[in-house]
Design a protein that fits this description.
The chain has about 400 residues and is mainly alpha-helical. The protein has helices at about 1-30, 30-45, 75-90, 100-120, 125-145, 155-180, 185-190, 190-205, 225-235, 260, 275-295, 305-325, 330-360, 360-370, 375-395. It starts with a helix and ends with a helix. Keywords: Lysosome, Membrane, Transmembrane, Transmembrane helix, Transport.
């Protein structure tokens, strides 16, 4: 059992990295996706009403914010709404799908998303690719969080892996684009990630006998715990006592994702273009997420609501910064973005840590899956709010 747990700890890092990779890359590529499609529209039409120049300082863009016609929040919503739908409804029926089938489906969806966005010839095709990435990420997160119930002390590995996905995905995409590769070639290179997910799960992970790999669960499976699984769970309870009073679904936090409006906060005449600034915002945010999601071994924060309040304050501050443009340098923006990532990552990993410790064993697998709706709900709300906010600022 210890060997299985150690192997899953290593595998969970890879699985967390691969699962969130496509989701993060699509967010990092949001500005490029919209800009590429608009540039094609400009080439195909001579109408001045359709002409938008994205080069900083061009007079054809009357807004001081160098706006895309469509907010990157549109890409964010395409990247999160399918995930939210899956997280809300799947916990009630997902037990009918074996874990092996789920992982295989997630890998196929991720690969399809990269191919669709790479070869897209219209905005709808790019958005469809983003939706496929969202389906892969949402189903994968729900499944792998439930999977942690079968192993002891592996939640930190999952959190660290998902944090690494953010940093590696955003940094790799930004770095390759900065090095001169086109978005299409960059996304095609990233097809290796779904392959790594497949290998990590089916060849590196050693599954316990209680795990329903290729078979469906029985009707009362969620209420039954095998002896091996109970021993693994008991061995992970050394740090905090488990409460037997909690058996309900937990939705303990809602986070806001300020990068929706960060596309409007950019600086003229510096060493980074507008699109490059947005990509590095994503990279620094994901760096903060990685650091805080990997901190569970040294720091546990029970009052997760404090982190949510701090995120709200940060969102308000950045909104004012966009409106009044009082930040003098991009380095201050980088600092606030990193800080936001630290808050978001800490809220995520601490929420699931305490759910895993304080929920009755028979409800734990369901609760871990259902509680993941919290972050998706927050991001969805942020994306919906950002659409009219984007329109308002771009009309100034």
């Amino acid at each position: 059992q210890c060997r299985i747990s150690r192997l899953f700890l290593a595998s969970s890092r890879l699985l967390g990295l691969c699962n969130n990779f496509a989701y993060v890359v699509m967010l990092s590529a949001a500005h490029d996706i919209l800009e590429k499609q608009e540039t094609r529209n400009e080439t195909a039409s001579t109408s001045a009403s359709l002409h938008v120049d994205f080069q900083v300082g061009n007079s054809s863009n009357s807004s001081i914010y160098d706006c895309n016609p469509v907010s990157t929040a549109a890409v964010l919503l395409a990247d999160i709404l399918p995930t939210l739908f899956i997280k809300v409804f799947a916990p009630f029926v997902i037990h009918k799908m074996p874990y092996g089938v789920r992982v295989l489906f997630c890998a196929i969806m991720a690969a399809t998303s990269f191919l669709l966005v790479s070869f897209s010839s219209a905005v709808w095709m790019s958005i469809l690719g983003v939706i496929f990435a969202s389906i892969s990420s949402g189903l994968g997160e729900l499944s792998f969080l439930s999977l942690t119930v079968f192993f002891s002390s592996v939640l930190e590995g999952w959190g660290s892996g998902t944090g690494a996905a953010g940093l590696i995905g955003a940094f790799l995409y930004s770095g390759l684009i900065q090095a001169g590769l086109s978005p299409r070639i960059t996304l095609l290179i990233m097809l290796v990630v779904p392959i790594i997910m497949f290998i990590s799960y089916f060849f590196l992970l050693v599954c316990p006998p209680s795990l329903p790999q290729w078979r469906t669960k029985e009707t009362e499976y969620a209420a039954l715990v095998s002896e091996d699984r109970q021993q693994l769970l008991d061995s992970s309870d050394d740090e905090e006592p488990e409460s037997s009073t909690t058996g309900k679904c937990h939705i303990r936090r809602v986070i806001f994702f300020p990068l929706c409006k960060m596309e409007l906060l950019f600086f003229h005449n510096i060493f980074l273009t507008h699109a490059a600034q947005y990509r590095w915002y994503q990279t620094l945010y994901q760096l903060g997420v990685l650091l805080s999601r990997s901190s569970l071994r040294w720091l546990k924060i029970r009052k997760v609501w404090i982190l949510s309040v701090l995120q709200m304050l940060n969102a308000v501050f950045l909104l004012l910064a966009v409106r009044y443009l009082f930040l003098p340098t991009v380095w201050l923006v980088f600092t606030f973005i990193l800080y936001e990532g630290l808050l978001g990552g800490a809220a995520y990993v601490n929420t699931f840590h305490f759910i895993s410790k304080e929920t009755e064993d028979r409800h734990r697998e369901f609760s871990m899956a259902a509680a993941s709706v919290g972050d998706s709900l927050g991001i969805t709300v942020a994306g919906l709010i950002s659409l009219p906010v984007h329109t308002y600022f771009c009309s100034l």
